[in-house]
UniProtKB/TrEMBL annotation:
Superkingdom to which the source organism belongs: Eukaryota
Family matches, as PROSITE patterns: THIOREDOXIN_2
EC number of this enzyme: 1.11.1.24
Segments forming a coiled coil: none
Entry protein name: thioredoxin-dependent peroxiredoxin
Enzyme category, top tier: oxidoreductase
Keyword Transit peptide: no
Family, per entry: Belongs to the peroxiredoxin family. Prx6 subfamily.
Length: 218
């Protein structure tokens, strides 16, 4: 089964949305910053309540990185506003300061490719969107599995690091900030020496192919 709709590298449609803060066009919200756009199957549901609470608790982490949050749930604005006290009560220290889009007619969800093909309805999806309004990373979870916010943050840090270095580096498995990165295969050793004057190490592998090059960056 091929999932329809926008995916990595595609521009998010410039939809006009109604949110718990105000109405705006998505591209205006995305402009000049990265955004984590995350959808939920519905208000007053258990897993979603824990997730929005965690997003609120992690809000300062996103703010430190200059990244905006934008929620989406398939209920109306009043329902969202009535739900927020539950979210904040369940996760102590959490404040829902980010806007939540209303989509009571389920018109926005399919345009953002946030459909759960198993449930045939709104999904537990997440897009990380760049300031160019293009999707840089997507997660799609089934309704039974809540997200891991540490992984969302780690993946975001990876994207920001790669973008900072014009995608000439990539982050290896389980990478975390301040750990070494790998150099893109598209970068020659000569270019790598200029990009990484501090030097890099080439892993000695049985194939003798020098493709796995590791560097420290900041």
């Amino acid at each position: 089964k091929i999932m329809p709709g926008i995916t990595l590298g595609d521009t998010v449609p410039n939809l006009e949305v109604e949110t718990t803060h105000k109405n705006f066009k998505l591209h205006d919200y995305f402009a000049d910053s990265w955004t984590v756009l995350f959808s939920h199957p519905g208000d007053f549901t258990p897993v979603c309540t824990t997730e929005l609470g965690a997003m609120g608790k992690y809000a300062h982490e996103f703010e430190q990185r200059g990244v905006k949050l934008l929620g989406l749930s398939c209920d109306d604005i009043q329902s969202h506003k009535d739900w927020i006290p539950d979210i904040e009560a369940f996760t102590p220290g959490s404040k829902v300061t980010y806007p939540i889009i209303a989509d009571p007619n389920k018109e926005i969800i399919p345009q953002l490719n946030m459909i759960d093909p198993i449930e045939n309805g709104p999904s537990r999806a997440l897009h990380i969107v760049g300031p160019d309004c293009k999707i840089k990373l997507s997660f799609l979870y089934p309704s039974t599995t809540g997200r891991n916010m540490d992984e969302v943050l780690r993946a975001l840090d990876s994207l920001l690091m790669a973008a900072k270095h014009k995608n000439k580096i990539a982050t290896p498995v389980n990478w975390k900030p301040d750990e070494p990165v790998v150099i893109s295969p598209a970068v020659s050793d000569e270019e790598a020496k200029k990009l990484f004057p501090q030097g890099f190490k080439t892993a000695e592998l049985p194939s003798k192919k020098g493709y796995l090059r590791v560097a420290d960056v900041s």
